[in-house]
Amino acid sequence: MSTEDPGLLLLSRNVGYALSARGLMLVTAESCTGGWVGQVMTMVPGSSEWYERGFVTYTYVSKVEMLGVSQATLEAHGAVSEPTAREMAIGALERSRGQVSLSITGLAGPGGGSAAKPVGTVCFGWSFLDGRNFTETRCFDGDRDAVRRQSVIHSLNRLLDHLLA
Questions:
Q1: H-only helix segments in 49-136
Q2: What is the pLDDT of residues 53-75, one digit of tens each?
Q3: Pick from 23, 66, 72, 109: CA 20 to 30 A from residue 49's CA?
Q4: In this predicted model, what pLDDT tens digit does every residue of 71-129 receive, in sequence order?
């Protein structure tokens, strides 16, 4: 990702303004995007006013240890699932000083997909300290970088939707 990407910079500014206007701090829990959302959010000068921290939890073990995702959830549904995305988002809030979180877990490729969960399948979670929780699954086209980029954009657009609702 280039820090010269005007579309991502504008999106991160808009999310930052929405968070700031509501007095909220964002925390992220990322797997397949490897911290890309955190990078995008911190491209904006002054982002420490509304970006609290990010967790990069690429493995099952890290999801359990860092975010408190249940081993039973991982065994029953796998890492790429809405139940896991939900627990990642909730765990990020519980282990931070943020009031809103987003999580991303998916199959960016090029391998690892199946008929049930093809490459490009990405699960998202958004959690608010007031108890609201949202999850969603999307399937994106393209190579690994394209899937990851689309995941970053989608997660922030949907966060903005939830903030403005």
A1: 60-67, 71-77, 82-94
A2: 999 999 999 999 999 999 999 99
A3: 66
A4: 999 999 999 999 999 999 999 999 999 999 999 999 999 998 899 999 999 999 999 99
Structure tokens of 94? 């519980």
Beta strands in the chain (DSSP E): 26-30, 51-56, 100-106, 121-128, 133-139
How is residue 103 written in tokens?
């999580």
Start-to-end CA span in the chain (Å):
29
- pTM score of the predicted model: 0.96
Whether 1 is covered by a domain: the verdict is no
Which domain does 63 fall in, by range?
Answer: 6-164
b/e string for 69-93 if b means 16 or more Cβ within 10 A?
Answer: beeebbeebbbbbbbbbbbbbbbbb
Cα–Cα distance measured from residue 120 to residue 144, given in angstroms and rounded to the nearest whole number: 8
Cα distance between residue 34 and residue 133, in whole Å: 22
The CA-based angle 80-85-91, given to 5 degrees, is 135
The domain that holds 104 is classified in CATH as 3.90.950.20
Residues 45-64 as b/e (b if ≥16 CB within 10 A, e otherwise) read: eebeebbbbbbbbeebeebb
Total number of domains in the chain: 1
Spatial CB neighbours of 57, under 8 Å, sequence gap ≥ 6 = 29, 30, 31, 63, 66, 67, 69, 88
